[in-house]
Amino acid sequence: MATLSDDTLRKILVQIQQTAVQSQRALNISRQQIAAKERERRILQLTIEEITSLEGDVNLYKGVGKMFMMVPRPSLESELKTEEKELTDDINNLVKKSKYLEKQFNDAQNQLRDIFHSSSKQ
Known about the structure:
The protein is mainly alpha-helical.
């Protein structure tokens, strides 16, 4: 096997280390976003549960800026369910992204490990 020059090997190591660091940072951000979206979704679920437990003749109001507007119950329920579905889709996409970033990080770590093991055997 042809040996690489020290300079080339150093450049490869730096590039792999940068990939690992970037993947780790992006993975942490992605996990934080998942946690925030899950909190939002849970709040929406609780709101939907509260609205459905109310009797039919109750006025419902929605905050709009600094004021509140009366909103028909079916309209508010459908809006909240749509918002919940969007959050669920966002969470699923973030989970996929996290899995990809985790794989990328693990691959970079394995490459570094392989390089150090092969260089220590020589």
